[in-house]
Amino acid sequence: MKLIVMSLISGILFGVGLTLSQMTNPDKVINFLDIAGNWDPSLIFVMVGALAVTSLFFRNIIKRPRPLFDKEFYLSSKSVIDKPLVIGAAIFGIGWGISGYCPGPSVAGLGLGTSEAVVMVFSIYLGFIAHRFYNQ
Fold it and tell me: CB–CB of 64/78 below 8 Å?
């Protein structure tokens, strides 16, 4: 029960942060990515804040034997940059640049009822299915 409650609280906090930073607004994100046109650098502050929190706390948290509300940390064991990783990153980046949504804000955008968020989340799941077929 603790895990469910903490997951809910974390999700709400994450959603509020995305909304306050306007990362659920695809126009804001697209303008941030448009460095040759109508560039909006304000999301740099979001990234700097995220990097600051991560650099201050990640190493200490990962040194713990386990997370507070789960039995283990779920970290990738992959340490090689290979073709599937590069292709996946390119597809992710292209999708983000076209839609203005990355996965977290697109899920938060579902709560706002935007059609763009519905299309993005549908596309993400379509990508999951395609990946499953590709790896069989």
Answer: no
